[in-house]
Amino acid sequence: MFTLIIYLQYISAADSFWSGSHILSLWLLGVIFDLMALLLLYVIVQCLTAGGSSPAAGYARQRLEQVAGVVNRIDYGALWFAGTALAIMVLITFVSVISRAIYKPLPDDITFAEWSLVLLASVMLGTLQGREDHIEVTALSDTLSFRWNLYLRAFACLVGLAAVGRLCMVSFEEVPDSFLEITYGSIYQLPAWPPRIFFMIGVAWWLTRIGIQTVMLPVLIQLDMRNALGTFDPLPLLSQSGTGEGELGELDIDETTTGEPGIGGTRGT
Question: Model pTM?
Answer without folding.
Answer: 0.85
